[in-house]
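Before the break, one more example. Copy the sequence into your notebook; we will annotate it together after we see the structure.
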Amino acid sequence: MICKACGNEISAESKFCPLCGAAVSGSSGPRSGQNIGASPVQGLVRPREGRMIAGVCAGLSRAYGWDISMVRVITVLVTIVLPPVGILGYPAAWLLVPGEPLPGTIPARNL
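Here is what the structure looks like once it is written out:
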């Protein structure tokens, strides 16, 4: 199969393009709690819409196709059970995961 977003050749059983992260036409639609009008995700990024604090949970849920509510619940539970992991992990992810580019801009590609 060929990815419609980037033209990369992908395997038939793939749900997402490994190069650009776009959903393959044969995969299921957005899951519960995800923004239906969102553009295809270019890997792990913090989205500009649908986020509560910094967009780390929203970015994880979009990048991996997880339910955003479950990601948020797990984040809160980890912070309660293992405070150092949650208190240090979320801000670290906030700094390390890039933000979604502004509409109309071309994102830089890591080669």
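The chain is about 35% helix and 0% strand. The first helix runs from residue 56 to 64. Try to locate both features in your own notes.
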